[in-house]
Amino acid sequence: MMKKRVPDWLNSSLWSSNPPPSDDHQNLRYSTTTNATATTTSSTITTSTPSTEDRSVDPPVPVPPPPMIEDPPEPQRIQDARVDNGAKDHNGTSGLPSADDISRQAQLMAMLSRKVIDILELRRIACQGIPDGAGIRSAVWKLLLGYLPLDRGLWSSELTKKRSQYKHFKEELLMNPSEITRRMYSSPSYDTDESKSESRGLLSRSEIPHEEHPLSLGKTSVWNQFFQDSEIIEQIDRDVKRTHPDMHFFSGDSQFAKSNQEALKSILIIFAKLNPGVRYVQGMNEILAPLFYVFKNDPDEENVAFAEADTFFCFVELLSGFRDNFCQQLDNSVVGIRSTITRLSQLLKEHDEELWRHLEVTTKVNPQFYAFRWITLLLTQEFNFADSLHIWDTLLSDPEGPQETLLRICCAMLILIRRRLLAGDFTSNLKLLQNYPSTNISHLLYVANKLRLQSV
């Protein structure tokens, strides 16, 4: 059988990544087992500290990348104005927009000023990357996720309704059982003569129904449910405190960072209670963080005040396309995480059979060993924060949905380092894939787009 020929454009030196930095300069990343026998795909995602290496994001997608250069260009910078006084990014250097950024920003601002948004045109522009600043990314992501209607005239009423709904969720779902019981018996229906006495507001033991007693084991008991939720809440609290420890926005002793952590916790707890089939899965905090960061850094003060509510609904919408990957009962089904990883393997075989065979047949690198984290965390741990936002611009812009785009980007990640992978054995390849080297993000997205066009 004739081996499928690799397209010439894949063999260009353009796609050869530079060697990764020495171990002394590597930051801790999400831990992944290197045991060749490890095949588990439990829906629990192990966490540690993400990398803060700078990576580049210059030319837009799908415009062909510039000629190969020795050192990657300077990356786009994420402005953290509320933490670092607005003049510097979180790496301490100023970030100046490129000519492409300025042009794209003008196009997006003109698009957002229309009475009715052209969603196809918005997707086309946004997939090339959304410039930081002016609150553009915040508005565009809300539109791409379906949180904002395309008719600008409906924005105000829709936001008011959703934000009121989230306030109601917080009041009902984050309430302590003691408060629930107190409100229950302070209502007019429980206003007896005895309650009007000097002991008004206090309940004797005989007045507390069995199902509302803290020691009750009844399934409908608010206390029993409270104790069941405590373990999940503790897990959420631990994970939120580990979210991007390198960024003052999420980590530190400042009141600002603590309030942001509380917002993340509230969103995840409410999501877990409203979605009992999925609940909370370790790692969801990493998917939530980019959304909240973008919405909280909106220059509009009203949007900042309601960033938590907006983030919740956008998080629900984003996760709806990936929820099967987090449902442990579906791990081995046709829609579960194993099936998704298998589709990535098939995609690589379709576009680069030589590399696929070397990885999975010759060196026996099971894609579960590296792709599980790539897919479930939407690549948030493989690249720095600025590059992750650029990748998400493309993920959210694809009309086919983010999952198909995500798989193409993962396949492109393998193709970009194919020469090193073809020269490596099991150990070196696994280490390389679990600590993905620095790369030009626009080149990566360009290759992913080429894969899409070839599949049409």
Apparent shape: globular
What's the helix count? 20
Give the quaternary arrangement of the chains: single chain
What is the element string, with H for helices and E for strands? HHHHHHHHHHHHHHHHHHHH
Question: Got a strand count?
Answer: 0
Contiguous runs where pLDDT drops below 50 for at least 5 residues:
9-94, 190-208, 213-217
Please bin the fraction of helical residues: 40-55%
Overall pLDDT, averaged? 76
- CATH architecture type of the largest domain: Orthogonal Bundle
Q: What count of structural domains?
A: 2
Q: In angstroms, what is the radius of gyration?
A: 25 Å
Q: Look at the structure and give the CATH class of the largest domain.
A: Mainly Alpha
CATH level-4 homologous superfamily of the largest domain: Ypt/Rab-GAP domain of gyp1p, domain 3
Strand content: under 5%
Structural class comes to mainly alpha
Distance between the termini: 25 Å
| CATH fold descriptor of the largest domain | Cyclin A, domain 1
- Summarize the biggest pleated sheet: none
